[in-house]
Amino acid sequence: MMKKILMILAASTMVISPMVTAQAEAATHKTVKKTVTVKDGKRVVTKKTTVKGTGTQKVVRTAHVPTKQRWVKGQRFDRRHAVNYRVISNPRAYRLATAPRGYHWVRSGNDAVLVGVTSGIIGAVIGNALLR
Asked: Which label site among 50, 55, 103, 120 has the fewest CB atoms less than 10 Å from its CB?
């Protein structure tokens, strides 16, 4: 008898829980706030804030949107400031030379940057190399 009651309770919980969460999600609203600045005649999004909540409970998320960084040889590369950061696994596809030992090519926007693996120091910068 006890097993039947527990099975009925478990089954009813599985049926009711999606309905309850769907109603709770429908009650929340979302507000997105962007901070836009103008640099050199171009609009640049510097900060994006998302607010979700119902009544008294709110969740705030702030995301830093990286801006265009000018990379210079000898400077330390910080991937947090790179736009569209990716490691280039096949440099020949972009007509880049094979990276020397201890270096690898990375993408920052449309620029190809040769970065030391352990030190993070920039060895070379090729601007607009990745326009494809």
From this structure: 55
